[in-house]
Give the backbone structure.
Amino acid sequence: MDPFEKLSREKLIFYLTVPLSSIIIFSNLFIIIGIACNRQLHNTPNYFFLSLLVADLCTGITLPFIPRMTLDRQLDFKHCLVMYIFPNFLFLSFLFNLVMVHYERYLCIVSPLHHSQFWVHRCFPLALLIVWLPPLLYASLPAFGWNNWVEPSAYKSSDSNETFLRSTTSRNSSKEDEVCSYKEVFPKAFIYLEVCGLVLPAMLSIVAMMGRVLWIARKQLQNICKLHRAVDRLQQQQKPSDHEQQLNMRYAKCMAAVSLTFLVCWVPYIIYQLMSVTALQTGVSLPNSTLYIIMSCTGIGSMAVIPLILGLANKQYTEPISRVMLKLRNRWRGGQNNRDITL
């Protein structure tokens, strides 16, 4: 790749990811502090959500480095592994935590009276280990030999004497020939297995649980509306009651919010994954294109926004920080008023 073109793409990644990464980091810290300051939120469901926030925070920190994984760099084998394995581990742990949070809330809705008896609540340390250890083990497979790394030619020679002399005199120059690329670290089988065996099932499970929850909510709404209609018939009212209309409006708003969240947060990431798989199958140099860089930044960034939507929508998570901000604002206004009076 042309150095000027590489520099322009690095600038594009910087301008796209740094603002989004800053928003993700500070928003997660805002919600984490809110949960830590409210003792009423110290329970198992919020511990799962806190684990998701920590994973999302780490994803926000590594977000500027994830799109750079498509660019070739001059690094040795150890640094190249760290550059690719660590962001991949954090993203997979974030995805596993997201599935666990949806699964725990799904159990609470499906079985509201018996959800505390499920293994997720009874074996919380085991559930927490499941969302962190498997991503670490899978992301570390290239470090245990599942990679396409090829040693530089300076290390390989048919003559043993030439090999010894070259290895002692030109070891530093040979490191400059080592090209660090995702193709060298991640084999195609590894990428296919991650996408089709981990990422895609996780996304489908989240969508299935959300659909099931919406279906349960719709059935309960229909039952409540039937009771209201029966009461209205006894009262000889032909028009639907105001409460029934409010319930229908709330359900419509819920459906609109879920649909908008799916379009904003999931669709860019799905397009990014489809572009990645298509590039692997056809052999096209798509990862070097500007469109692919934009989709990778927006796709992964939009996925990281999902916990923020869940957290900021809950007033219990934001109430402690909101009180502190309100006190600071009142003090600042009070100080300004005192200055005006003295003047």
Observations:
- The first strand starts at residue 73 and ends at 74.
- Confidence is low (pLDDT under 50) at residues 154-176.
- The chain is about 75% helix and 0% strand.
